[in-house]
Amino acid sequence: MKDLKIIFNGDASTIDLNDTVEDKNLYEQKVLINLVTANGTDKVFPTRGTRLLADSIYGRVYSKTGAVHVGNFAALDTIYFIRSTDPKDLQNEPYTINDVNVYTISYNNQENVLNMSVQVVYKDKTSTEVVADLPALS
């Protein structure tokens, strides 16, 4: 499965119409998009998104414990969403998602950007850590 590549650059993220992502890179991108999409704002996929953005903006991520709590719920929502929308024939591929861990979260309200560190664990037990400044999609 392939998709257009999204270049995450704070509040100026763009779609690269000349490049694609696939396999593990595609899943990393899908995880990041789902994490920063506000719950219920996607008309095509109403189950896409998490409360991560709202919780960050409204001050629920005020301590390390709060960040872990919010991050865990967002990670679970992301895993369920991706598994429910993946084609069935891809769900056993080694590069599909086994787990998602959100390690750090901070919200920059002046730039409307979420700064986060996310670990994506694949079915083949390998993992990738993604550190990104993501636009707060709403």
Mass-distribution shape: globular
The biggest beta sheet is recorded as: 3 strands, antiparallel
Structural class: alpha+beta
Q: Give Rg in angstroms.
A: 14 Å
- Termini, distance in Å? 27 Å
Topology order in helix (H) and strand (E) letters: EEHHHEEE
* Uncertain stretches: none
In DSSP terms (H or I, runs of 4 or more residues), the helix count works out at 3
Could you give the topology of this structure?
Blueprint: E1 2-7, E2 14-22, H1 23-36, H2 52-57, H3 64-85, E3 97-108, E4 113-122, E5 127-135
Antiparallel strand pairs: 1-2, 3-4, 4-5
Helix pairs in contact: 1-3
Overview of this structure, please?
With 138 residues, the chain is of the alpha+beta class. The chain has 3 helices and 5 strands; from the N terminus they run E-E-H-H-H-E-E-E. Helix 1 crosses helix 3. The mean pLDDT is 83.
From the structure above, extract its key features:
138 residues, alpha+beta, 3-stranded antiparallel β-sheet, two-stranded antiparallel ribbon, 33% strand, globular
What's a quick, concise take on this entry?
This protein is of the alpha+beta class. 30% of the residues lie in helices and 33% in strands. The strands form 2 sheets. It has a 3-stranded antiparallel sheet with strand order 3-4-5. The chain has a two-stranded antiparallel sheet with strand order 1-2.
